[in-house]
C-alpha cells in the first residue's frame, strides 16, 4: 500500500512539473482559416459553374425535346392524315367496286329485259295478226249473217205482201215494202252475182222476191192513192189518216 501511494505521488509530481505548451496565436489561426475559406469559395464557384453548365445543358435539352415533340406531332399528324386518306381511298375503291358490280347486274337484267321485250313484241305482233284475221273473219261473218237475215226478210216480205194487199191490210203491206226498201244493197249485189253463175238458185230466189216486192210497191201506191182520193171526197178523216200513215212507209 505504501509503495502504491508513493508511486502515485511521484506520478503526480512528474505530471505537474511538465510545462504547458505555448498558446496559439490568432494570426496563426487566421492563416489556417484563410485557406479553408478559399477552399470553400472554390468549391462554391465550382458548384456554381457546374450548376450553370447543367442549366445551360438542361435548357438545350428542353429545347431539343420541344423540337422533337413538334416533329413527332407533325409526323403523327401526317401519318393520321395519310391513314385517313388511305381509308377514304379504300372506301371509295370499295364503293366503286360495289357500283361496278351493281352496274353489271343492271346490265345483265337490262339485257334479259330487252330479250323478254323482243319476245313479247314478237308475240304481240303474232297476236295482233291473229286478232286482225279474227276481226276480218268476224266482219265477214257479221256481213254473212246480215245478208242471210236480209234474204230471209226479203223472202218473208215477198211471200206475204200480196196476201196483205188482197186482204186490204195496207198497214202490214206497207211495213213489208218498207223493210224491202231498207234492205242492204249487198242483197241485190248478191242477186247480180248469182245471175253470172255463182249460187244460181239463191240468186234466182232473190231476183224473184225483188220483182214481187217492186210490183207490190207500185200496186200498193196506186191503191192508196185511189183510197185517199175517195176518203177526201167523202171527208173521211180516219181513212185519210190511215192512208197517209201507210204512205209514210213507202
From TrEMBL:
InterPro entries xrefs: COG4 (IPR048682), COG4_N (IPR048680)
Coiled coil: 51-78
Keywords, comma-separated and alphabetical: Coiled coil
This protein's GO CC annotations: Golgi transport complex
Residues of the Conserved oligomeric Golgi complex subunit 4 N-terminal domain: 96-190
Biological processes, Gene Ontology terms: Golgi organization; retrograde vesicle-mediated transport, Golgi to endoplasmic reticulum
The organism's place on the tree of life at top rank: Eukaryota
Region spans: Disordered: 16-41
Signal peptide: none
PANTHER family hit by this protein: CONSERVED OLIGOMERIC GOLGI COMPLEX SUBUNIT 4
UniProt name for this protein: Conserved oligomeric Golgi complex subunit 4 N-terminal domain-containing protein
Organism annotation: Cylicostephanus goldi
